[in-house]
Amino acid sequence: MARSGFSAFLLFLGLVVSYVNGNTDLCGNILNGNLSNAGLSDFNLTVSPAHLLSNTSYTVNVTGNGNFTVLLQAVNQSTPVGNWSQGTSCNGSALFTGYFGTNKLLQTTWTSPDNVKNVTIKAFIQNDTTTFLLQQSLIQDTSQTTIAPVTTTNSQNSTASVAATNSTASVAATNSTAPVAATNSTATTSRVVQTTSAGSIDQSSLISVALSMVLSLLLIPNKHRV
User: Fold this and answer.
1) Could you give the angle at the alpha carbon of 71 between the alpha carbons of 119 and 61, nearest 5°?
2) How do strand 83-84 and strand 105-111 relate by DSSP bridges?
3) Torsions phi, psi of 144, nearest 5?
4) Taking the CB of residue 58, how many other CB atoms lie within 10 A of it?
5) Helix (H) and strand (E) counts in the chain
6) Is residue 78 classed as helix, strand or coil in its secondary structure?
7) How many CB atoms lie within 10 A of CB 214?
8) What is the pTM of this model?
9) Are 27 and 95 in contact (CB under 8 A)?
């Protein structure tokens, strides 16, 4: 009995090793097979979302028609990266058999790693004679920028500029008021001086005329006496 149990365990272990080695060999054959473009339009690969993000789950869909084995792989610089949620794992790839006879859609999930800027999702589709390759690239979206800090900084600078402008305007207004006041004061003083000078000239003229008349009256009687 003990020998029978041990023999059964060895048989099971051999089947597991054979299965693993068989899948590994199948993955290698698919990856190293000759690719064909004939009939490639009968299959479709979609990956969502479209841009690459760290530690993000992506839905991978492959559709087609026929009896095919599908090998899904995500590579960065020829190195498999990330994790597949389904399929038989072989060297970082996910192997699916029996598509697309009754299962017209192969849907699975791939989770991206950290600090990777670009990844290519590849779908190798193989039957007994032909291997097709579909692929889609995922690239980090670098077009988005942080606007809030820049806006805040600009707002503060703008406020400071307005305050400085108002302060400058106030100073300018104060400085400009002083010269105007001084100018008006000078003009008023000049007018007063001019008015006083004109009055004194008129009084001198009247006194001169009066003296001339007095002298004339005094001289007239003296002339008759002579």
Assistant:
1) 70
2) antiparallel
3) -80, 135
4) 20
5) 2, 10
6) coil
7) 10
8) 0.55
9) yes
